[in-house]
Design brief:
The structure is a single chain. The chain is 40% helix and 19% strand. With 413 residues, the chain is α+β, with helices and mostly antiparallel strands. Strands 5-4-6-3-1-13 form a six-stranded mixed β-sheet. Strand 7 and strand 8 form a beta hairpin. The longest helix is centred in the last third of the chain and has 25 residues. The two termini are 33 Å apart. The chain binds adenosine-5'-diphosphate and magnesium ion (MG). The site of adenosine-5'-diphosphate has 18 residues, from strand 6 and helix 4. Adenosine-5'-diphosphate binds next to strand 6 and helix 4.
Length: 413
């Protein structure tokens, strides 16, 4: 795969669900016109506007968001794009070019958890959450399509929620900022869809900026945009989607979350973020022989520390030095939190053996994607090594692309 091929691979289709999605190789303008035209065909009138919201990869800081700690995601060029028109008659119509389902026609005043039984729960949940807060959202027509791969740990669900939240914020003049819209989107996923995710994915989609990673404090949502221009350093960030579908609903995520909350209670802190790296040894001692909780605390406190370390190295211009920190993060997710899988471990081992600077799984785990930091000159060799390792193990071929830090959610028409 040449660099040019990779460029075409980024955010331009071929990443999505493949049913009626916007075709490969189309540029952003064509995608936007296509979705607006699709809206008009579907609903018989032009939309009021078109909005876009990206998926994300998290560089470091995993399972730290719900512990009120730190994360460092960047937005992908892959986006959910939605054409939307305001309605004032209480009707909400939702359609995805990527789903086989017909237009979902709902009434905003009848929306209630636990969702509407399909993908439409994500945008419908945003309408529900905004109305719960007293915002006068009186209906909408929505037609969307996404190039964010689903179930790949790249936050296709947050992209759907955030694109809806940004559109409604503009169309109903709600005056909410990115962080408020992200919180609303998270509440839609937690309380309407029923997925107990933290706030990172929605914050990344709403608040990332091009050329930066987002250093986010998940306690107060304060954030810093950290310059992240790997190309200028002669480096690349490879994303490897193992195509193993992660399933956060299987209880493992909830079990880790419960473990972290129990550990915090035993340690007398509100969240594990309050255990300092210097205080880790004492905290582990205080947990006695509860090996499970000790592992979870070691991971969370360690990853919060690794976020700080990566931010420090980036600020110091020591970009290559973040590689071993990423790999240490993977070991922690594999051995202490135990949320990796053989395919993710293979990406990390094969990439590092072939000369990558570092690698780790990213996102919820149990499948999904890994990130690999690599010298530009070694990109093809590392990619080949990973692909060959997958063939040798009899695994499905991974989907591979180079990530560039892209823009967060915005109006595009
Ligand atoms: P992730 O957010 O990591 O991609 P999730 O399981 O949280 O994985 O969300 C994936 C779900 O989001 C899909 O099963 C589907 O319901 C919904 N979704 C994402 N993108 C689209 C789309 N373009 N059209 C319809 N539904 C979508
Ligand atoms: Mg998701």
């Amino acid at each position: 795969m040449t660099d040019q091929d990779r460029g075409r691979d980024q955010g331009q289709g071929g990443q999505g669900q493949g049913q009626g999605g916007q075709g490969q190789g189309q540029d952003q303008d064509q995608r936007v016109s296509g979705i607006a035209a699709g809206f008009e065909e579907l609903y018989g009138a032009a939309p009021d506007g078109v909005w876009a919201a990206p998926g994300r990869v998290n560089l470091i800081g995993e399972y730290t968001d719900f512990n009120e700690g730190f994360v460092l995601p960047l937005a992908l060029p892959h986006t959910a794009v939605a054409a939307v028109a305001r309605r004032d008659d209480g009707v909400l119509r939702l359609h995805s070019a990527d789903a086989a389902t017909p237009v979902a026609e709902l009434r905003v005043d009848a929306l209630a958890p636990p969702g509407v039984g399909s993908w439409a729960s994500y945008p419908a949940g945003v309408v529900w959450a905004l109305r719960q807060d007293g915002h006068p959202v009186t209906g909408a027509d929505v037609h969307l399509a996404s190039t964010v791969p689903t179930g790949a740990g790249l936050s296709s669900s947050a992209a759907l929620e955030v694109v809806t939240a940004f559109a409604l914020n503009d169309l109903f003049g709600l005056g909410l900022g990115g962080a408020e819209l992200a919180r609303t989107a998270q509440r839609a996923e937690n309380d309407f869809v029923g997925v107990p995710c933290g706030v990172m994915d929605q914050m990344a989609s709403a608040c990332c900026t091009a050329g930066h990673a987002l250093h986010l404090d998940c306690r107060d949502l304060s954030m810093r945009q950290i310059p992240f221009d790997l190309e200028a350093e002669g480096l690349r960030l490879l994303v490897v989607d193992t195509r193993v579908k992660h399933e956060l609903g299987d209880g493992a995520y909830a079990e880790r979350r419960e473990g972290c909350e129990t550990a915090a209670r035993r340690l007398g802190v509100s969240h594990l973020r309050d255990v300092t790296h210097d205080g880790l040894a004492d905290a582990l001692t205080a947990l006695g022989d509860d090996e499970r909780l000790r592992r979870y605390v070691r991971h969370v406190v360690g990853d919060d520390h690794r976020v700080t370390e990566v931010v420090r190295l980036l600020a110091a211009g020591e970009v290559r030095a973040i590689g071993p920190v990423l790999t240490a993060g993977h070991a922690s997710l594999r051995d202490d939190l135990r949320i990796s899988c053989p395919e993710l471990d293979l990406v990390v081992t094969a990439a590092n053996t072939a000369g990558a600077l570092g690698a780790r799984m990213t996102g919820g785990g149990f499948g999904g994607s890994a990130v690999v930091l690599v010298e530009a000159a070694a990109l093809d060799a590392v990619e080949r090594a990973v692909r060959e390792a997958f063939v040798a193990s009899g695994y499905t071929a991974p989907r591979v692309f180079v990530a560039q830090a892209a823009a967060g959610a915005r109006r595009v028409k």
